[in-house]
Fold this sequence. Notes:
The complex is a heterodimer. Chain A has 19 helices and 32 strands. Chain A is an alpha/beta fold.
Amino acid sequence: xxxxxxxxxxxxxxxxxxxxxxxxxxxxxxxxxxxxxxxxxxxxxxxxxxxxxxxxxxxxxxxxxxxxxxxxxxxxxxxxxxxxxxxxxxxxxxxxxxxxxxxxxxxxxxxxxxxxxxxxxxxxxxxxxxxxxxxxxxxxxxxxxxxxxxxxxxxxxxxxxxxxxxxxxxxxxxxxxxxxxxxxxxxxxxxxxxxxxxxxxxxxxxxxxxxxxxxxxxxxxxxxxxxxxxxxxxxxxxxxxxxxxxxxxxxxxxxxxxxxxxxxxxxxxxxxxxxxxxxxxxxxxxxxxxxxxxxxxxxxxxxxxxxxxxxxxxxxxxxxxxxxxxxxxxxxxxxxxxxxxxxxxxxxxxxxxxxxxxxxxxxxxxxxxxxxxxxxxxxxxxxxxxxxxxxxxxxxxxxxxxxxxxxxxxxxxxxxxxxxxxxxxxxxxxxxxxxxxxxxxxxxxxxxxxxxxxxxxxxxxxxxxxxxxxxxxxxxxxxxxxxxxxxxxxxxxxxxxxxxxxxxxxxxxxxxxxxxxxxxxxxxxxxxxxxxxxxxxxxxxxxxxxxxxxxxxxxxxxxxxxxxxxxxxxxxxxxxxxxxxxxxxxxxxxxxxxxxxxxxxxxxxxxxxxxxxxxxxxxxxxxxxxxxxxxxxxxxxxxxxxxxxxxxxxxxxxxxxxxxxxxxxxxxxxxxxxxxxxxxxxxxxxxxxxxxxxxxxxxxxxxxxxxxxxxxxxxxxxxxxxxxxxxxxxxxxxxxxxxxxxxxxxxxxxxxxxxxxxxxxxxxxxxxxxxxxxxxxxxxxxxxxxxxxxxxxxxxxxxxxxxxxxx
Amino acid sequence: xxxxxxxxxxxxxxxxxxxxxxxxxxxxxxxxxxxxxxxxxxxxxxxxxxxxxxxxxxxxxxxxxxxxxxxxxxxxxxxxxxxxxxxxxxxxxxxxxxxxxxxxxxxxxxxxxxxxxxxxxxxxxxxxxxxxxxxxxxxxxxxxxxxxxxxxxxxxxxxx
Lengths: 807, 160
């Protein structure tokens, strides 16, 4: 029976709010066990070298040292993506970036382990390092890996949806721009830590700050050759993830192996410096974007080319490469769309998934270019966008199915909140407003490894005490997934959320959930939870309906009561109903699971990009620019986010503001850059800033007020209509900042971050622009050609000239 | 390394411990006294996660050597609640979304406690200044400032 919602949609203290405010949450590094040993890793000082020999004999003899491990102890590689298994827990023949771990010491305490690291002698043969993708393209040798497309190209792909050259030839205006987005890192407050031990039953347990315990579990089994059922991974509450704890880390295999060898608990806590080496952050991406538009502002087509700096390992790179293209046509209707993407290995820490995974870079280019087009056409940038927004339930040229779509509402709302029409262009020299939009998926439609099983499972146990115990493998990384789980179960069963206890992130006792990535948890875990709770409701209703004098489908569960829909009788408490049902049916439990819908695209590669739903955001940034110094001040940001429905508005708004914060940091200051050491010191590439002293992020004093509007149009594919909020709101911030700076002082900084020196340079430049000026020749392959849905396409690859396309 | 005896007051209780003298106050709190509520984030005094009150003033415990703390008074997040009841700062952080991952929370709450003891009615700008040394990567600070503002109000009401 439908009824008004009791819990969902009402602002509320999150279920772990008390634990967090009292310091009682046990993060991985807070764990300690009797007889625990400590691990330290020896890392490569060279960006690219052959490991000729490692002599650990002195370290092994050092008092207090229990074990020294090297690459020889790890013959089997790991990798989060089956197509990119290229990493060893400790490097074997080759090191690929400064910081690549080569040996581990396990000792009685950290101090002893640190001393013993100095006693390990490693002989390296230094190789020429590849510093960036351009160098990687020019230098196929030395190859950083002996797999990949060719030379140092890791992934290389091209997709064309309808003949883009034709569309551009017919357009009234074609603009071509180059953009660059520098890499940056997650910088979670908690450094990764792991504790491995052999439990009382002789099985391996690894408690770790991971976002993806299920994938870590599988990779541990693979690399350590331990049967999967002999492993239990517990994802401790993460002190922030943002994608940085998605990949299995070498340190996790090291402590697990050491625990297996020694039979004692073995712990590691990475230092902040090491977290910079582990990285897996935002890819630096160079982009070329060619877009055609009619004179009345209708987009005709786009050809996007991207070049990614992958760093030394595959990580999520194959997916990242796709993501620099696939979500581009979700916000606006492009009748035709083509994208070429190439990821090159370089001798730097591996890049991977950071909040927005591969999409902030092209979104930045796309939204800045739209701003430029609006100027050329003499149109209001908001009008131009509204003219082109995609519709609900539409397909994109690339065959992505969009569900609910609140983008137009977001634009209307954010322009109204910010006084866009009255204020834009009228704030005087040095002050301006900029608008940008974005979208993000609500969970990847395909699992990282191919299988036909559900993406999320939830089990609920009803106890006769009135407790509701919910098991799910989902991982709390700060985003509030435990709260979402408890709220959805409590709402569906009509009980007080305080009676719900969640058991999550534990592969030893909870059903599989694939992990906290791709903004999938609320949707996938939530749908599984609804199914499990509804099954319990059906069981209980069947037993108590007679007592209530109604039909089973007329039984209502709300506010801890179970009663007839017409309120004809006194009803009973939920606990009484549980007692009656348990007496009749036995112990009450149900499971639910969720698999995303099959994507409509049928071409090879169509698995990246589809999602059960897409969130949308629109953002207006106000900027003040000091023309003497280039200094940028952002006094205010307005953002509207189409969330479908907010499960807990306090948390949802917090996610939006947090996303804006991280986006603003990327826009203005955050960058993971490298410098070359003098030749006499090896000439190596090293981090400019492997510490918080140099890697700057916004403080409370730098952060402007953010005004948030949540647009709620429930999506039928989502639990109670709730879409994602963890990643989407970050994405429009960077281009909105760039567009506001243009409105303020008339310069274009076509790269991220936008720092005062670049603004000054642009102010003094003839063309009032700073940004990349050339795009290298990239050997992109011949495109996979697919006709868009509106050109009689069937979603499959076809020959480019097989059919006469209709424009 | 031979251990050294340290006597100090932690959360109002006199504590004695034997510790390795190279350790920071943060390490002694977390490793020797099992008070893991205080966090480490950067080892450099940049992030504020390790903030405790040392003789009533906010201090970065990762930059304080434990040997300097003989006879002194340390307050940590574990000492804040009043029995089962949360301190108003803790309650406000939970209610206003001041914690997301929660890792920075103990440090920010201790910095805020010091602020409210000297300035019971701070402006939002003063709150931001007092907590500017505490990095948070989740919240964008807005709900932290909301929480501290609300806690100040609750504390003023209590004082009335």
